[in-house]
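Supplementary Text 2. Reproducibility record for the structural model of the 467-residue chain.

All settings were left at their defaults, and a single model was retained for analysis rather than an ensemble. We include the record here because the model underlies the residue-level annotations in Supplementary Table 4.
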Amino acid sequence: MADIPSLKQALAFSPENVPLLLMLGEAYLEQFSLEEARETYEMALRVDPSNPHARVQMARLLDLDGRGSEAILRLEQVCAEYPNYAQAWVLRASFSLNEKRAREAREFYERAISLDPTVRNEELLKRIRQAGGQRSAEEPREPAPQRNGERQASAFYDPEFDDDDFDDDPFDDNDLEIEFEQRPNVDFERVGGMESVKEDIRMKILYPMENRELFEAYGKKAGGGVLLYGPPGCGKTLISRATAGEIKAKFLSVGLHQILDMWIGKSEEKLHEIFEMARRNAPAVLFFDEVDALAADRKDMRSSAGRTLINQFLAELDSDSSKNDGVLVLGATNAPWHLDSAFLRPGRFDRLIFVPPPDEPARDQIIRIMAEGKPVAGLDPAALARKVKDFSGADLKAVFDQAIERALSEAMKTGKIVPVTQKDLLHAAKNVKPSTRKWFESARNYALYANQSGFYDDILHYLGIQK
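Retained model, structure tokens:
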């Protein structure tokens, strides 16, 4: 492993030395210091914004942080701009395999090793083979099928792979690996706190869906688009599922990886079919997580394919042409300022709802919900709630997870159930840092200096800032 102190000392004399920054980033990754690695690669990109290696590593870090859809989009952009950069194709193969898209992983891996044989990854190769199965040596080897008028993203062939090993057909019209959740078993009662958010949703979503005839008398249709934004881990996905549960609607959660496709025009087809599924199953709730990755500002898109997909999304949201009556489209994002402004126009995501971190009563309620069904003794939810200011719901879950691991460790030694105590939870809370504070550092600047339309007034109000 590279000597981190030596690299940092060298950078003190040459702070904009990109090769040194990349070496330091690799060193941090090797010891799994992800936050330090991310900051280092960001420094490299400030000096060299187009550096493909730094961008690939940022995609890797985003995936490790649970932001898979954004990671895939960034990696796709690198591959489009640097089609001969083998390391990007290897990582795309790994991402595709994680999403159980074996054929796609095979295509990306083949392309990578044809560009640079030194990137061969035996472990990844083994996993791809296992995902696709093996065919007998007697069967003829044929190149992958290609439709007339359509171009493949990779024309390379590696004899280590066989097309018959993979069952999924990239041209199958029914290849959407997605299905509706029939009436989610969660409603607003199972969501701790968020009372103002719930009331916003009732006024803007639930009442129009429940009183269609009354609203239609005023020329208002049920459905439309709502954008939920706020710090990560504060319950945007949960409140979306609960919204579907409240109105007894079917719920469909859509990730970017379920839309993006290596075949030209296929991503747009998938997106259209998802909306058609929702229209056939109305009333339905379509939920797009990390929607800023799918609805990014077109000015920042160098790939024409990315801009075409965004245009398709806009067309689907346009209720006049798409007949989205009874289809509620919910988008969740941690960075609404990265959305294309066209998505915020009337008829699209024209209603914005700020989802803040839980306040003290909400944290109390979340703690009580998380304690249900667990061996907890001496719990004082109110006292614990006071100690975890600025914690998101995800942060509180991390507190419980650490406390439970500590109790489990003792239980394994004695062979008996050891209850989780208030002391265990308070000890764990000291080790978990509130993830919301960093988000507000960025959001504050956008709310103060890029808020011409007043979209982010809720952030200023939450922070107690008068503008």
